[in-house]
Amino acid sequence: MPTVLILNGPNLNMLGLREPTIYGAETLKDLEARCCARAEALGLHCDFRQSNMEGELVGWIQQARDGAQGLILNAGAYTHTSVAIHDALRACELPVIEVHLSNIYKREPFRHHSYVSAVAQGVICGFGSHGYELALEALAAILNRNKKG
Amino acid sequence: MPTVLILNGPNLNMLGLREPTIYGAETLKDLEARCCARAEALGLHCDFRQSNMEGELVGWIQQARDGAQGLILNAGAYTHTSVAIHDALRACELPVIEVHLSNIYKREPFRHHSYVSAVAQGVICGFGSHGYELALEALAAILNRNKKG
Amino acid sequence: MPTVLILNGPNLNMLGLREPTIYGAETLKDLEARCCARAEALGLHCDFRQSNMEGELVGWIQQARDGAQGLILNAGAYTHTSVAIHDALRACELPVIEVHLSNIYKREPFRHHSYVSAVAQGVICGFGSHGYELALEALAAILNRNKKG
Amino acid sequence: MPTVLILNGPNLNMLGLREPTIYGAETLKDLEARCCARAEALGLHCDFRQSNMEGELVGWIQQARDGAQGLILNAGAYTHTSVAIHDALRACELPVIEVHLSNIYKREPFRHHSYVSAVAQGVICGFGSHGYELALEALAAILNRNKKG
Amino acid sequence: MPTVLILNGPNLNMLGLREPTIYGAETLKDLEARCCARAEALGLHCDFRQSNMEGELVGWIQQARDGAQGLILNAGAYTHTSVAIHDALRACELPVIEVHLSNIYKREPFRHHSYVSAVAQGVICGFGSHGYELALEALAAILNRNKKG
Amino acid sequence: MPTVLILNGPNLNMLGLREPTIYGAETLKDLEARCCARAEALGLHCDFRQSNMEGELVGWIQQARDGAQGLILNAGAYTHTSVAIHDALRACELPVIEVHLSNIYKREPFRHHSYVSAVAQGVICGFGSHGYELALEALAAILNRNKKG
Amino acid sequence: MPTVLILNGPNLNMLGLREPTIYGAETLKDLEARCCARAEALGLHCDFRQSNMEGELVGWIQQARDGAQGLILNAGAYTHTSVAIHDALRACELPVIEVHLSNIYKREPFRHHSYVSAVAQGVICGFGSHGYELALEALAAILNRNKKG
Amino acid sequence: MPTVLILNGPNLNMLGLREPTIYGAETLKDLEARCCARAEALGLHCDFRQSNMEGELVGWIQQARDGAQGLILNAGAYTHTSVAIHDALRACELPVIEVHLSNIYKREPFRHHSYVSAVAQGVICGFGSHGYELALEALAAILNRNKKG
Amino acid sequence: MPTVLILNGPNLNMLGLREPTIYGAETLKDLEARCCARAEALGLHCDFRQSNMEGELVGWIQQARDGAQGLILNAGAYTHTSVAIHDALRACELPVIEVHLSNIYKREPFRHHSYVSAVAQGVICGFGSHGYELALEALAAILNRNKKG
Amino acid sequence: MPTVLILNGPNLNMLGLREPTIYGAETLKDLEARCCARAEALGLHCDFRQSNMEGELVGWIQQARDGAQGLILNAGAYTHTSVAIHDALRACELPVIEVHLSNIYKREPFRHHSYVSAVAQGVICGFGSHGYELALEALAAILNRNKKG
Amino acid sequence: MPTVLILNGPNLNMLGLREPTIYGAETLKDLEARCCARAEALGLHCDFRQSNMEGELVGWIQQARDGAQGLILNAGAYTHTSVAIHDALRACELPVIEVHLSNIYKREPFRHHSYVSAVAQGVICGFGSHGYELALEALAAILNRNKKG
Amino acid sequence: MPTVLILNGPNLNMLGLREPTIYGAETLKDLEARCCARAEALGLHCDFRQSNMEGELVGWIQQARDGAQGLILNAGAYTHTSVAIHDALRACELPVIEVHLSNIYKREPFRHHSYVSAVAQGVICGFGSHGYELALEALAAILNRNKKG
Predict the structure, then answer these.
(1) CB neighbours of A63 closer than 8 A, spacing ≥ 6?
(2) CATH number of domain containing E29
(3) Testing the interface with E: which of C53, C58, C82, C117 to mutate, by most E Cβ within 10 A?
(4) Host domain of residue A35
(5) Active-site residue list of K
(6) pLDDT tens digits for I38-96?
(7) Between the N and C ends of chain L, which has fewer C-beta atoms within 10 Å?
(8) How many structural domains compose chain B?
(9) Catalytic-residue membership of D78
């Protein structure tokens, strides 16, 4: 049963607490539960983590090469500033999907550029927590295709 | 049964014919079939069209207000140049999802800006034709939520 | 009796339907009626058209040389992107007046540059449909002056 | 009888004297007479002034709040540089119409940006002194509409 | 006998009528005749068309893959704005030559960038209608070389 | 007795040691003592911390919501690069005051933009360690006003 | 008893009258009274002025060298455009503190650059009229230090 | 005997007082004396003025048309910001020479652009007060040439 | 028999030796032979030169005025950097044709700007050594036309 | 025996594992061994560390002042984003040498700017792990020279 | 008797021949004669040269240190492109005066930046060949002042 | 015994003479001697040259292909402006090492971009003349590796 690592960046531990009109009332715990249920239905094991530390996220991406078959990443604010995460993703040789709760292209200009997009397979944004489920479904399809192909 | 209008912009009629290593071997007809099947499974009716004409796409978006409950748009090259499509989307008052077959953020810089993103609910790109199915699933969830809410 | 061609670009067929708080409740039909009445009062014949197609607008501007004595143009979104309309206007050798319902300089930055302004005699914007009447009055004065001069 | 304040910025006192092939032979006195006649016909009182001083124009705009019902402004060169006039207009709470004798968008690039446009109701340019009359007509319509509405 | 498709963009139907001091007195009909004569002399069949519609030009480029062996394109104003034409050319897998009557690098800055150049084999500009003949000669050489090579 | 959290970013632990001609001879310990004394005089409790880690600062800002009534932040070099701190501040719903020892607008251009300023109530810079005392006084006034208001 | 010159730039004479939701209900007179009281408590004499004229402010700054020991400046809109004030400040050889009622970094981009900051000792903004009192306290500390040092 | 108007802009009344290491110990009075002596030796009458007011300088330039045969202008800080002075110079139809005491191209970047240069006959900078004498000599030569030619 | 000067800039002496997959196997000698043959067929004398020295190319262009009737220039890398060649061309009063072996618009961005284009009659690029023959043909036509006209 | 601190930034722990065609097959352990051997031969003690954490690198640089005589830094991705490392280096008062395995100027544009270069003595890049040995040799020479000088 | 080296850059050998309406009918020989006469009158020896070669000009500037007391430079087109001349001037430790025949600030934008200005004592432009005489006079004054001072 | 060509660009012949506090007291002759000694110790023959002429440097790089096995280049000011040297290096197919005496990234912004870096194997700067020795050592290692590999 393939493992999917789902990584969440800075401030996502505040989910459900901050700005609920934008991000909804669901907490990070709720989101984890929702992801695990969907993963299981798709035949995937889900390893769900959050950190406010750029270096810790870099470390987890490095370890994913051995311990996971796919990666879903919501890098939060580091999306827009971290060349280190960009480099780690480039080296990890797994299918990577970038997710954002909100549609970042509707927000401030400094959120329109992502260092993640250029090294991800695909991008999903603007669908709230449902976006994580869509990413899991997309990843399952990619893993199936790779297994066959 | 709600209707989803799926619009495809210029050159997408060449799908399966041009650059198959990038876009895959599926033709536009195949894609339409795949979308209709998935739509039906989700309880949606699917109206699938393509045009090379900017003005014709604008017209279809205008008509969507009366004839559809949701819109999925792959505007192709007009994504990056059409203020007219941007205006039409802003006025159409439907949930809109932007789809691209390839990950546009991995391509030439002039494809990194989209006039559609700022007026769409969400964006899905880089998953080939499967991205259309993810968009349908996302749209079904939005329509369900709106019906309830 | 001189003919004035009044051309309207993309999405103006939605007038009165979309965003009435910005554009007012008047429809394009109402606007046409108002223009024809004012034109008649000024001794002008009014030929009023709308298209979502850039190429069709280009064609009408080309034909104006033979069939009209003046041109009033609200190019809508093409104002900001169309070098083709710019070229057609440059060649048409008629007095041209640019009109916009809203004050485009108060809106998004990509609406602040106009390819029409540099080849128009004058610009009127921000007065809603009344701006068309002002343009007719300005055009009547120009045609009178030219006739005398 | 409502009062309209018509303000003219630097170098407009040279009207009719400098570059008559561009600005025409009319002097500022002539222009004032023409404006007063038209204002009267529209049921408006016209208070017409000119200054080369940025600070004096700012002061007049500040005073307009108490002594006038509308403002027509040709800020001349300050159009392109004066943040102070921009601020004063924002605070004056009257309908403001920006006028230019020439079509500024046909001239040097540094004249294409206006600090006035973003705080004006509408813009009229390129019609010579007739533009002032069009502005008066537009203002009369706005004042009528406000009185009714 | 190989077919060469010669496509002309917006406003080129006005050739010989507009701005003859720049573009010469030759009409589009004259140009077509001149091209057909030269093509025949080089052993080529010439299919010569013009459209003001971006989408129609895109369609013709798409069809060229089956019906032509080479493409000569004067995209007029769309040269500078059309990503859709750029995409269609990239997919058409024919030798493409970009032609302009005037030297676009001597004109306004917004005409200095071409979306066509990056996907054309070569560029010829500034030689009036003679440039089309040079393009035909260049194309004949390329087709000969390809046949041999 | 309300608590004020005073956070100091990277390299501020070197205070008094590095570049004393710019930053003075006071160490971070001295600064803490000075702040606590002033806070007490103003009826405030002061919680004073320093970290070189972006993520640790983000965490402390998140916790402030529950454990503090106001926040004074000298983010050091992260002022100019951290979108993560920007996001955390936006969500913390406390009055925030940005402080810098030196006048950052007198230094290298890359120090002129601050991600903190746009989400702070006010900014104080250039007064050395005295700036922290001014910030405490400003915060006391704000907390008093809020209590009353 | 040292004298502090407090200068206020264009439109600040409208304080309390314009946009009270942003700037508060206090008038310039009220602000002057508040400043004089605080100054006296700190052992300073306060000379408080306002002008809409860039040249008049320049003149006052020039005179400050002989008549004052410190300068507090809220240059209003001239903050962002006046090279003349920048030059005068550079030559005046007094400690200068820049004050703004609102946090200018939260407002339009053209207010983010200040010609004053680079020649001021420090900057205080966003604290309403209280910011003037903080500036007086900061200035008192600087004058004390200078007297000793 | 032809009259030369020598105009000096903001802060030049501080000459000899501010930053003597840069501008020298000569006062504006000294400079005036030096200019008058040299003018007389060249057979010219010299009218020497200074103002901190942009509008007053504009006025003097306007009047120069009737009262002077040539103009030497050191516009100080307005050199870099005043479109109004630029316009006034363009209309004054006299030979104009731009002078600066220091070499402005060695100073801050915002002093490298001059609105005066594009409407002056020539530019002289970096020679201190001697530059005014060189300008007088140049002007004498131009006036002689014009008289002959 | 008119003389055509064909000038080649830096590194073109390496033709056929460097990067043959891009530039072909032909050497500069071969190219010269091919040009002379074609020139002769067109009734032209061909003077063919190469230099790595910017100043030597400038000198040859200066001399062309007396010794040649037309100029074909492939300035190599100096195309993108030499204002001196630009100036020399502007003064030489001959028809000038710019040639490049490769399509420079397909290469690095710093090769997209040419100082030659703005002072050439026309541009031909992307056709390898055949482009020189096309240039000769174009030049012959221009010389013929000038002789007649 | 002087100590050299060799610091390695994010993702360098993946050396030999990721992208071996670019970075070679040597691991970080191998690199450390190679550096220690070379250091010993040059009479230096080598302290070799790696971290993915920006703040930890900042801390090590701060401590170097007391525990080391020279610093060799390969900051990896933080090279391009860390103002905090820039500040720490500026304060550490040791000779600093910047090293990169690859030639960063051949890579993506966002890797062409380094916050380290402006505060380093010298830069060595593009020589793989041999670059560390060159840096050690350079540092030995500098330390010798300082000892003498 | 001090020697002044007067250097002229590319295309100045064409003086009097090219574009006489701009540059006048004087040849470089005439200019040399005029300069030598004026130099002699001022007690200076004049060494006057011209080259189209950037490197030759660099060499002459290097030699000036030993063989001349002052330098007058009209670098022609190299003014705008040569960092090498900039460096040579910086090292030559002589007073340098930049001269241009025309007012370069009235010409194309790429002539508005000069690499010479930042390392010259002063700049004189727009006075035709008379500018060289003004430069000689300025240089004589500087040499006199230096001798005394 | 392999030959290394060491090329030095403009102004390096002034070494030891100009600005010795920056570049040291060593002359170019001294540097050559130092390089030859080190080269010999490494089993390399050293051919050391200098030119102020861009075209001469281009010629030497072209000849290196036949007469040398490696190239060390300090292009001086041409580093930042020469596309011609860039092209020559790209074609020379030897290992190239870029050297600078000073750390160019600490100097003026126009020295931060190098046309050499993108076509060099590696870059060494900031170590004075010792940098040439490091480059020789690096080159010896590369030549050894190539011989083996």
Answers:
(1) none
(2) 3.40.50.9100
(3) C58
(4) 3-148
(5) 23, 100
(6) 999 999 999 999 999 999 999 999 999 889 999 999 999 999 999 999 999 988 889 99
(7) C
(8) 1
(9) no
